[in-house]
């Protein structure tokens, strides 16, 4: 007898995979099954559309579409699927890294955009996020990422804690010492690691990234150290570990707090001794690798609780960097917003957008549990659907709903150092004379009425400044 389907039973979640490649179908189905998803298959567009009307199709919770199946018509197929089932999340799987394709897919109705080869934890996270029953649809993660700057001087943020973290990172880049970067998910740990590598003596050599989340002890050891043929059941070929492959370069181990306890000792020995022994090997190999590790959780309490080995902690943490959460540096949000909008405008299919002060105030008032990455994703989604010349609060309806219309704004525009209102409430630019008057008033207040300094900083003569005061009706005592 078939098991009755309920909303609270995760084992009955169903995903339709539109794909015509058997190997990939088996892989995706296996990964989804481990997270409690049942996969049904459609090998072409016509079958997928027809399946929506079947009894099984009516029980679907999500769709994964391989862009290769419809090709250039992927956006049309997404739009057709959404027109028939508007509430059904659609994830597009593609080998293309083109932002233009991401924009087209999102505008057509895709919920997320996954780039092959897709990591197992990323696929599961995307499915879970797409089907989560909450009011924050616009805050779901987007896979498409805009390249981050690798120069420490280009990193956006003036809060003392963030600048202190960058200073430590920049200083450590010149050494070969292991570095531990701690901070919540989305705070920019990978960005910092890439910047350290790019500024290091190893910059011309390889940088490789390994994520430990969800991996077993055997999987992690095989991935890091490699294995010999026959080392364990299923080891039909010799595998060279990532530490050997990155010889001379930098290895970034993300979510090291997720490494199983039984593997931590071997990793600690490898880092301290500079030697590795593949699984099943008789001899060790010397390795010259710079280790940068990251953790979403503070490791010191884990050491004290016995869930993280002390020897590994001290092996990876000669240099420690803590990246503050975005809620702890909310004064940086306006600058980050403008930075991301500039980067988004550089992507194919996108355009330059401003942002109203009301929208900035709204964005600055949110806690951003997903930190900088979540802010970037929210801006990317808002920019895709914005019809005007500037983002307004209407582009972030879920934020307004969650914060409430009467919620006091945590960070006002003036407190965040913006000072000048460029847009009116309807999203249109204010007249130049009004903006110029505000700039002069701001300068007079900032330099405490010292008109010579005001004129010098504004790049005009004193006579020109006094003329503008008269023309614009500004009281220089204001």
User: Mind telling me which CATH architecture of the domain at 160-322 this is?
Assistant: 3-Layer(aba) Sandwich
Top CATH class of the domain at 160-322: Alpha Beta
User: What is the CATH topology assignment of the domain at 160-322?
Assistant: Rossmann fold
- Using only C-alpha atoms, the radius of gyration works out to 26 Å
Count the beta strands: 16
First and last CA, distance: 80 Å
Low-confidence stretches: 1-11, 133-145, 406-418
Number of H/I helices? 19
Average pLDDT works out at 82
- Fraction of residues in β-strands: 5-15%
Structure classification: alpha/beta
Question: What does this protein look like?
Answer:
The structure is a single chain. With 478 residues, this protein is an alpha/beta fold. Among the domains are: 10-133, Rossmann fold; 160-322, Rossmann fold; 432-471, Arc Repressor Mutant, subunit A, CATH 1.10.10. The protein contains 19 helices and 16 strands. The strands form 5 sheets. It has a 5-stranded parallel β-sheet, sandwiched between helices. It has a 5-stranded parallel β-sheet with strand order 7-10-13-6-14, with helices on one face. Strands 8-9 form a two-stranded antiparallel sheet. The longest helix has 15 residues, at 371-385.
